[in-house]
């Protein structure tokens, strides 16, 4: 894997050096960093890496991405400078004409936040796994310890295609599908779009995104969960961030908790951003319920695990201090170009 990453890095740098203009440079960026790019393919292949080697490989992937991005930015600035110099020599400037701006697109706030979360967990040895958005009722509810007529079904306001098929209300079904494969241990996150019948307002939408994590192994305890989420919060919001776990109830975990972090605006002193409380709720978590393990064919006497889930939009809203979720989807260029 190290040789493969080294080869990708060398090929990307060579392609950038061979690029003659910004369009070709952008093609190089897409070829190596895009959704179907070379480096993304390596990330998706993390499932084939030995669990003990995943942290080291994840770090190598991050280092390779950083090197390619830095070289891209350096090459882009060099091309822009040369183009400007050439144009100044060849063109006669008409100062009465309005200026033209070279507008280049960039990542959406959701994509920026997702990339950062994925980098954090890949660096901890997790793999990123996706699953279907149209899901069976069994995987979305029953396999997660939410049987028929359970109140949680009403709370999630599900979109039903028919009696047995739904638009998933969470990405937990991806975790169930992975557990059923029986390939242990498991360290994964499952990002993706989910759907709930909510009215559109500043904090709700019928379509949004979640990132759910799962770890299954021998001798996993709540202490492992706390340590993992504390490290995640510190990398995402800053080294001084503290976390607080409050008891809660989720059907698929026991014990369960909601996690708060100290407000990164006031450091926990209390301000308008955190409504004077000093703490901000960011996610829910808990130890995987033994019945959920049993339904997936895993012996709860031999294996334990933890799970957590966080809303991607919530991360983006908090990190970039956006006060209205609708701004993320209105495609207003005045808003998007700030990121």
Automatic annotation (TrEMBL):
Keyword Metal-binding: yes
Subcellular location: Cytoplasm
Similarity remark: Belongs to the class-II aminoacyl-tRNA synthetase family. Phe-tRNA synthetase alpha subunit type 1 subfamily.
GO function terms (MF aspect): phenylalanine-tRNA ligase activity
Xref: InterPro entries: aa-tRNA-synth_II (IPR006195), aa-tRNA-synth_II/BPL/LPL (IPR045864), Phe-tRNA-synth_IIc_asu (IPR004529), Phe-tRNA_ligase_II_N (IPR004188), Phe_tRNA_ligase_alpha1_bac (IPR022911), Phenylalanyl-tRNA_Synthase (IPR002319), tRNA-bd_arm (IPR010978)
Gene3D superfamilies reported for this sequence: Bira Bifunctional Protein, Domain 2
Binding site for Mg(2+): 254
Subunit and partners: Tetramer of two alpha and two beta subunits.
UniProt organism field: Brotonthovivens ammoniilytica
Recorded superkingdom: Bacteria
The protein's name in its UniProt record: Phenylalanine--tRNA ligase alpha subunit
UniProt-listed CDD domains: PheRS_alpha_core
Catalytic reaction list: tRNA(Phe) + L-phenylalanine + ATP = L-phenylalanyl-tRNA(Phe) + AMP + diphosphate + H(+)
């Amino acid at each position: 894997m190290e040789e493969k990453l080294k080869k990708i890095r060398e090929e990307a740098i060579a392609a950038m050096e061979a690029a003659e203009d910004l369009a070709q440079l952008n093609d190089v960026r897409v070829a190596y960093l895009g959704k179907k790019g070379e480096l993304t393919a390596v990330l998706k292949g993390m499932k084939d890496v030995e669990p003990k080697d995943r942290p080291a490989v994840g770090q190598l992937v991050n280092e390779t991405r950083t090197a390619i991005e830095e070289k891209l930015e350096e090459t882009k600035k060099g091309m822009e400078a040369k183009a400007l110099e050439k144009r100044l020599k060849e063109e006669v400037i008409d100062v009465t004409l309005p200026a033209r701006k070279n507008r280049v697109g960039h990542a959406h706030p959701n994509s920026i936040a997702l990339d950062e979360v994925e980098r954090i967990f890949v660096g901890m040895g997790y793999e990123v796994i996706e699953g279907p958005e149209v899901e069976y009722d069994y995987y979305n509810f029953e396999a997660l310890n939410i049987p028929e007529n359970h109140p949680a079904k009403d709370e999630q306001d599900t979109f039903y295609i028919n009696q047995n098929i739904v638009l998933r209300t969470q990405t937990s079904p991806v975790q169930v599908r992975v557990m059923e494969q029986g390939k242990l241990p498991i360290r994964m996150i499952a990002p993706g779009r989910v759907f709930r019948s909510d009215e559109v307002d500043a904090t709700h939408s019928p379509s949004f995104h979640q990132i759910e994590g799962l770890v299954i192994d021998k001798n996993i305890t709540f202490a492992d969960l706390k340590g993992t989420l504390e490290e995640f919060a510190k990398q995402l919001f800053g080294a001084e961030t503290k976390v607080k776990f409050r008891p809660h109830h989720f059907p698929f975990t026991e014990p369960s908790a909601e996690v708060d972090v100290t407000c990164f605006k006031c450091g926990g002193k209390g301000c308008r951003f955190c409504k004077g409380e000093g703490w901000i709720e960011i996610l829910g978590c808990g130890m995987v319920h033994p019945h959920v393990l049993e339904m997936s064919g895993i012996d709860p006497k031999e294996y334990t695990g933890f799970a957590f889930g966080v809303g991607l939009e919530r991360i983006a809203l908090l990190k970039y201090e956006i006060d209205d979720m609708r701004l993320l989807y209105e495609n207003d260029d005045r808003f998007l170009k700030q990121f």
